[in-house]
Amino acid sequence: MPTESGDMKLLGNFRSLIDHVSAEPDYNPSNPGLTKSALESLYTAAQAAVAEVATKIAPHKVAINERQTGFEDLPRRVGNSFRMVKASGADKKIRDDLETSRRKLSSKRKSKAVKDDPNTPKDEAAATHSASQMSYDNQVGNLQSYVALLSNIASYQPNENELKVSSLQALTLDLKARNDAVIATFVPLGQARGKRDQLLYAADGSVVNTALGVKAYVSAAFGTNSQLNKQVKGIKFDRKRRV
């Protein structure tokens, strides 16, 4: 399964390419983007872009884990609350209204996670994130509706603290905050990934395109049978399919 380590493999190959051409005193391309100094600058910028993604991933993962932990107990809490409504003597019409929201909060279906392939310009995780985000947004909305209905049932006065309306209102606010934290940390991560993808793979002056340009120059300037060309031609910088 692809991981962020694919970026490091690409940068390792680029470093090797730079070292080979830097050792050749006659390496002197007219294209300013292929000069030794330009290659070093691009390598430094690419390293920084990859490091920024790693930095932004950490808080996003923490937020996701904290959200998951918070929502795991939601079906149980709501289920116990609904049964307490029955025990309180609330009439069937009110229970039927609550049942609609309760059913939406009792589903345990989970979407299969898809990880981003750092070797491609596309963010494969985005679709999964969007579906998951919608699911959690809906859960918060359904819980708000459920608690609003519950607060209007005069006979619902449980002694159990976690089932009280005030406790469920506090739970709603807590889950909304956890969900908002995932959104807040996803935005800078998405921006960092976009910058990385452009710099390493997609832009005209990306690492991949620049490396391929270097290899073309070496082949043209030194010949296909030259020692330098033999050293660099096997270093892989594949163009990735755009989706």
Structure characterization notes:
- With 243 residues, the protein is mainly alpha-helical.
- The protein is 70% helix and 0% strand.
- The chain contains eight helices and no strands.
- The longest helix is centred in the last third of the chain and has 38 residues.
- The chain is rod-shaped and about 90 Å long.
- The protein starts with a helix and ends in an 11-residue tail after the last helix.
- About 7% of the residues have low confidence.
Radius of gyration (CA) equals 28 Å
User: Proportion of β residues?
Assistant: under 5%
Helices and strands, in order, run as HHHHHHHH
Helical amount = 55-70%
* Overall strand count: 0
Largest sheet: none
Q: What is the terminal-to-terminal distance?
A: 19 Å
Query: Assembly state here?
Result: single chain
> What's the tally of helices?
8
Basic shape = rod-shaped
Summarize the structure.
Helices cover 70% and strands 0% of the residues. It is mainly α and 243 residues long.
